Amino acid sequence: MTSSSSLSSSPFFDIKTKYRMNSGFEIPVLGFGVYQTPADITEDVTSHAFKAGYRHVDSAVAYRNEAPCGAAIKKSGIPREEVFFTTKVPPGKLSYDSSKSLVDATLKATGLDYIDLYLIHAPYGGKQARLGAWDGLVEAVKAGKVRSLGISNYGVHHLNELEGHIKQREAKEGKGAGGEISVGQWELHPWLARPDIVDWCQKRGVILEAYSPLVRAVKMNDPLLQPLSKKYGKTPAQVLVRWSLQKGFVPLPKSVTHSRIDENAEIYDFELTQEDMTTLETGEYEPVAWDPTTSDD
């Protein structure tokens, strides 16, 4: 186990490396994403990811593939405590009651005894919906159904809102009553580095997960990446995953191709220099996915 701030300098940094979250539990630093992975192939690709060494699967209720993820976990033969499973409350389903019922539905669908990490997928729905959904997840943690909580796609204003709510609950009900933000998940890559959100999280020990770390393959021929690919004898995708790790993020590369699943994990035998990391500081703001962080509802 290590901290995100010491990741790139750790001599023990490999596919088994984990971070300790604010909840006290650990999270593997490399995840396998199953966004838009059809349910009928999710079990196969997730099983292959386990064979490649991944121990962290990122799903969501909206992906409609929680069940095959659970099947792959159960059939893997890997001890449950060594596999980290994430899912998310979908947009449009934010409320106290909905969160609680969704947790039960996830447990039933996956056949798991607990969920490692439950996130609020996006901040849409308004303040009451967001805070109600969070409180429902807090109850699930207290019931032992979920271990750690977090959010996804929140802007700094949403984060401040949630932090204020947690502090208010703690002031009235005692420490821990409002839950803990352990993880935040965003689109993160050199063309969308989100320094304001990263700074907010790092000051509070919130682990940053990076979805679309490969920029949906639209930058593979970019002149910033090609020289680094040649320098290290690695693919542009591997350079991007390595960048994410060295930033202290938890990247969630996804693929339905076995060889690329393997490739995305083969990033522990090289390290980008500080100069190389600096060249990838583009200062750009180029989302390739949705961007709920800007929502004002």
Distance between the termini: 38 Å
Q: Taking Cα atoms only, what radius of gyration do you get, to the nearest Å?
A: 18 Å
Q: How would you write the strand order of the largest sheet?
A: 3-4-5-6-7-8-9-10
Q: What's the story with the biggest beta sheet? A: 8 strands, parallel
Oligomeric state of the chains present here: single chain
Q: Structural class per helix/strand content?
A: alpha/beta
Order of helices and strands: EEEHEHEHEHEHEHEHHEHH
Mean pLDDT: 95
How would you describe the overall organization of this protein?
This protein has 297 residues and is an alpha/beta fold. Strand 3 (32-33), helix 1 (39-51) and strand 4 form a beta-alpha-beta unit. The protein is 39% helix and 15% strand. Residues 5-11 have low confidence and may be disordered. The chain has helices at 39-51, 66-75, 96-110, 127-142, 156-173, 195-204, 225-232, 236-246, 258-265, 274-279; strands at residues 18-20, 26-28, 32-33, 56-58, 84-89, 115-120, 146-152, 181-187, 207-211, 250-251.
